Amino acid sequence: MESVTLQPRSARIGLGIELRKTGIGKHRHAPSADHYVSLHAGPPVRIACTNGIRDVRSRGQINVFPAGTAEEWFEDDASDMLHVRLPASLARLAAQEMGLDADRVGIASRCHVRDVQIEHIAWALAAEQRADSPSGLIYRESLGMALAVHLLAHHSAPAAPRTGLSQGQLARVTEYIEAHLGEDVSLLRLARISGVSASHLRALFKRSMGIPVHEYIIQRRVERARALLSHGELPASQVALEAGFSHQSHMARCMRRILGVTPASIARARNHRQT
């Protein structure tokens, strides 16, 4: 799967957007701590779902992957997809702004549906980033909030029962991980920060985020590496160390597994933008 990053996402809100050109074959959306919305941006593509149902994905149709969900499918044709990453923290903030209980409302899975509002927001984000974000962070934040509000208003679902870490515990753990991505993050250290045992932390973190803590750390390292590579100020070997990977090939394997992209392709996309 080839992925072309349009621009590094906003560091503050974690909102991301990228155009992925996928080939014929099996594809998988891996569980993530954040929500994803994908918009079909090319000619019709024949799809075979794992439940045996066959369908045709048309331009403008969207898929919604809530945090923690995974999907697999087979594509009979190459496709162009615009992927929007919506941080779970932004969705929770939107729920609070709407007067909803963020622990009782979530975002529903959607497959091959039309939603003109989501389509407009996705293309607006893509246009803004292609133009090197001339309207600034406030505009991107407003688009991200508009997307979160629309999903909660029109594509909501009861949130899964939350019996994981408290909001304060989760904030302390994720903030520590973010601040120490370049180091060997210790599970015992995270347990002490959260105030629970290491075994309980593993279980509670997965209930809260939908993925194991070690997978969350890898995802955050991959995102850190992608941002550094997109800036182009460091060689790939140094980026691997800065992001917390043991070596460059380890970084490349993780990026391909999670993003479907290699460090070299990110460098090519950066060079293309600069020319």
Automatic annotation (TrEMBL):
PROSITE patterns named in the record: HTH_ARAC_FAMILY_2
Source taxon at top rank: Bacteria
Family annotation (Pfam families): HTH_18 (PF12833)
Identification of the protein by name: AraC family transcriptional regulator
UniProtKB keywords: DNA-binding, Transcription, Transcription regulation
HTH araC/xylS-type domain ranges (all copies): 171-269
Keyword Nucleus: no
UniProt entry tagged with the keyword Transcription regulation: yes
